[in-house]
Amino acid sequence: MKINIVGKGVKVNENMQAMIEEKLSKFDRYFDDNAKAEVKLSPFQDQLKLEITIHIDRHFYRAESVAQDVRSALQDAIDVLERQFRKNKSKIKKQRKQFSYMKQYFAEEIPDEYEEESSSKISRHKAYPILPMDEEEATLQMEMLGHDFFAFLNVDTGMVNMVYKRRGDNNYGWIELEY
After folding, report:
1. What pLDDT digit, counting tens, does each position of 39-89 carry?
2. How far is CA 29 from CA 53, 82, 112, in A?
3. Sequence ranges of the domains in the chain
4. DSSP secondary structure of 23-74
5. Which of 2, 28, 48, 130 has the most CB atoms less than 10 A away?
6. Could you say which architecture CATH assigns to the domain 132-176?
7. All residues at 6 or more sequence positions from 120 whose CB lies less than 8 Å from its CB, including other chains
8. What's the whole-model pTM score?
9. Class of domain 2-119
10. Containing H/E element for 160?
């Protein structure tokens, strides 16, 4: 797995880099060599925020953590990623073709505690027209509906975009879909 470590407002020294690479090496059992991991470190209030994004093929895995030091934040984020893998293992097994890079992981046993959780399914389907609007109007529509996200047709680009409410700072994010 290729690892890219970025510090935004935080200096990443060699010891931090070695520790992060060592801790992330445990994910080599899940992924082949095509996986790319990006680790971002940034100050958050009086603590440190660490985000890990792993990208392989068409799939993304993401976790973030806020703690006093790098070691604690890193361990918390790794624990979140491992829980995601274990929780979704049986779902992933059903779609083997798309997750072929996890062959070794499929061979391991699934703990019983996660087997029960993995039986989620789509229980509701909605369809609605995507209307042309700008991002400010889309944000207003999202707030009026009481949703956390809203898809719309960008009036400037003619592309489908999404606005969403960010956790923590109550600001908004904007996603431009590429297709």
Report:
1. 999 998 899 999 999 888 777 788 999 999 999 999 999 999 888 877 766
2. 17, 12, 21
3. 2-119, 132-176
4. HHGGGGGT--TT-EEEEEEEEETTEEEEEEEEEETTEEEEEEEEESSHHHHH
5. 48
6. 2-Layer Sandwich (3.30)
7. none
8. 0.60
9. alpha beta
10. strand 160-165
